[in-house]
């Protein structure tokens, strides 16, 4: 059996969550206190230059590896075991039905046999893993099994980045799975513990915004759209004549001309709210559903002033930022003010760090 290092492995503590996106590297480390409450021990973020990671592919390995080293140093952690993730586009997943009562080795043989039907590559070229989800809802005595596969070089790139920073990769997950794990905590804090609540999660990245509609831990719909925070940087470049690097730095620091808020930011926020509204309409027209209970916004650009209000106005649905650290105790090594400002950027890395507590 070729292991994906492992996609569904239950890991013992301690464990870092390391999220490498197109714009930054995010690190999160969690623990539990004596009462069993989650504690945010460390978090850190390190920006990446545009083009270092493209469509989930590592284009500038040495530069990204150096950024990983910096984020580890910045966090102050001594933990070496790390959970990482691949973009959903790099992983093929499929649910299959197999007979119940099979041993682990019998399951492996069956999974490899079934995987040949669904994976358009030779099994020698892929990392493959599986997880028994539970009893089949449609076939008595059988079990539902989730299989996942990715090209070996995609997995090896992520592992290599960790190893170059002196870390030991022990879990390779899927980004959307990790973000759902972190979101599940937030949904549980909603009225009625979030039971039967339909949540549309939008993760606004630099270049792409991913949408997942979740109800009772089930994904009803998912879609990626080509809009993100980098478009705001481009608008700043065009409006003020800065270089892209200057514009990005000034956007992060808030060091922009007086007319920025009214002339650039407000129109961009309204445009982003319209894109989210369009994505929801597409969901409604292609499924039996016609409403959601909440819109949750994550990713760096979700912190833009006025975005949640604009989304509520545009869609008429309650909108909120997804703060993955909500309800956690904040450790002494965390700069809380900075963390609160960037919290929504950490959704995936927090989900990866939560893998420590899965049983």
From TrEMBL:
Protein name in the entry: Pilus assembly protein PilM
Occurrences of domain SHS2 (ranges): 15-183
Family annotation (InterPro entries): ATPase_NBD (IPR043129), FtsA/MreB (IPR050696), PilM (IPR005883), SHS2_FtsA (IPR003494)
Pfam families in alphabetical order: PilM_2
Record organism: Polaromonas aquatica
CDD domains according to UniProt: ASKHA_NBD_PilM
Gene3D superfamilies tied to this protein: 3.30.1490.300, 3.30.420.40
């Amino acid at each position: 059996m070729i292991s994906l290092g492992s996609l569904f492995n239950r890991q013992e503590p301690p464990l870092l969550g390391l999220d490498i996106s197109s714009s930054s590297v995010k690190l999160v480390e969690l623990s539990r206190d004596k009462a069993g409450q989650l504690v945010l021990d460390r978090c850190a973020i390190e920006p990446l230059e545009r083009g270092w990671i493209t469509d989930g592919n590592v284009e500038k390995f040495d530069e990204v590896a150096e950024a990983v080293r910096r984020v580890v140093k910045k966090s102050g952690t001594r933990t070496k075991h790390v959970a990482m993730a691949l973009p959903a586009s790099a992983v093929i997943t499929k649910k299959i039905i197999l007979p119940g009562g099979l041993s682990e080795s019998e399951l492996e043989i069956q999974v490899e046999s079934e995987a040949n039907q669904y994976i358009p590559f030779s099994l020698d070229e892929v990392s493959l893993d599986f997880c028994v989800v539970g009893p089949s809802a449609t076939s008595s005595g059988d079990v539902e099994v989730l299989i996942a596969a990715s090209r070996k070089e995609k997995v090896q790139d992520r592992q290599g980045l960790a190893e170059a920073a002196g870390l030991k990769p022990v879990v390779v997950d899927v980004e959307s799975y990790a973000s759902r794990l972190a979101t599940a905590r937030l949904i549980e804090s909603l009225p009625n513990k979030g039971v039967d609540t339909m949540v549309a999660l939008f993760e606004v990245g630099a270049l792409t915004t991913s949408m997942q509609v979740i109800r009772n831990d089930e994904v009803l719909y998912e879609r990626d759209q080509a809009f993100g925070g980098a478009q705001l940087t481009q608008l700043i470049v065009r409006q003020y004549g800065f270089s892209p690097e200057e514009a990005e730095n000034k956007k992060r620091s808030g060091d922009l001309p007086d007319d920025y808020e009214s002339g650039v930011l407000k129109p961009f926020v309204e445009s982003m709210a319209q894109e989210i509204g369009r994505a929801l309409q597409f969901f409604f027209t292609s499924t039996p559903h016609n409403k959601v209970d909440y819109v949750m916004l994550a990713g760096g650009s979700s912190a833009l002033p006025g975005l949640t209000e604009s989304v509520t106005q545009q869609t008429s649905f309650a909108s909120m930022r997804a703060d993955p650290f909500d309800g956690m105790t904040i450790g002494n090594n965390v700069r809380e003010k900075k963390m609160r400002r960037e919290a929504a950027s950490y959704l995936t890395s927090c989900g990866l760090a939560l893998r420590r507590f899965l049983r």
